[in-house]
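Z., the sequence and structure:
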Amino acid sequence: MSTSNLSTVDGTDRLCVSEHAQCVPSRVLHLRQLPADVSEQEVLALALPFGRVSKLITLKTKNQAFLEMASEEAAVTMVNYYTTATPTVRNQPIFIQYSTHRELKNDNLTNQRAQVALQAISAAAVHSGSMASGGEGRGLVLGQSPVLRIIVENLFYPVTLEVLQQIFSKFGSVLKIITFTRNNQFQALLQFSDTVHAQHAKASLDGQNIYNGCCTLRIDFSKLSALNVKYNNDKSRDFTRVDLPTGELEPAAAFGVALPPYGAAAFPPTFHQHTGLSMAAVPGSLVSPTRVSLQVAPPAVHSVLLVSNLNPESVSPHCLFILFGVYGDVQRVKILFNKKENALVQMSDATQAQLAMSHLNGQRLHGNVIRVTLSKHPVVQLPRGGAGQEEQALTRDFSGSALHRFKKPGSKNFNNIFPPSATLHLSNIPSSVSEEMLKDLFSSSGFTVKAFKFFQKDRKMALMQLASVEEAIEALISLHDHQLDHNQHLRVSFSKSTI
């Protein structure tokens, strides 16, 4: 037997005895260790996402409060959720448990004022639909909207509109989604049917990984009150309007290549929990952000990419090997003999192919905006024995290359994959190589160095900012694996940082 202390409404302690240190579920909840000057709105912010609050009593001199939820189910949901996600008010942890009271009576003047505050806040929430999270995602602030702004960091796998819809619809009705890239980051705007659902989703998913160890969700409330979606395609979707046109996003027609269909039919996202982690048994699909990791199965597709609109005067198999090798281990490259502006690039697996496609499609290489799509070919064939010398030179097998970045299982390189940017990350720098030597190396190769900075804690690494993303892509291709001394070669990758 174990015990826990509860206070009665008048402040006297009452002992609750239970086999599992918990009282019998009740609609009345007891909150302890609140800030001395806590407001009624701050207390209600903890409870309103879980359902309607019927009564509120605050005991400010004792740093306590009592809430009566409209239903016992709402109270159970709230207690279970906060068992694994510690509630906070102004970053101060508080304690929530069932009360021995079955209902609350508010017969003094102070508690009547609390009831007036409760009615005003509840009415405002109902009429404006404007409840949103504040602080640590545990509070509620009036004047917000049901639209979430989502940033996906460490984008190792591609994240589709359908994946976002399936993840977020666990918390309520998703009406509209718009996806886009800004500041070299994949972002999305997602509109729920009401702000309570948006509150649930933000509190539960902010900081979560969609895939194990990567694709981290950063979620905030948008300043927009609603989204205006004009087209239903792979970049935007209005789930309430099936009649909307697809717009101009028709890659197959635009680039003359065969693409798989977009959406769930092409890449059906399988939603499951990561092995070894448990989901809090909470009604209403609330997930504990401290215990659960989201994981969506990567789409099963071929590992060969079709790269089109290349500059035939400048491109080479080695150039494509280095560039695409930033996002996976390239096995083979074939530049098409009769159409040298097109090439096939075979990655180690389908996941790496998706990753390279999501980061490199639309980038500028040798003055041309390249297009990267999935190829229908399962592998890149090597030339036959009777092929001419030029045709053989256009196809290279890199399967045994020492320059593969991801051949070691669990390599830290998996955690440092970023979109092309003007800032390059340099590593494996010998102590004998100075800042001026590195600047001269890039300048003499035709690149404009805008800024440079060694890492303070590790001088073997540095950041170098060039004039543009296109120039940084060219520099990475030219100088990755450049020999700096007799046994050390420069390693170059894209950085998420700026100088």
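The mean pLDDT is 77. The chain has eleven helices and 29 strands.

Let me know what you think.
H.
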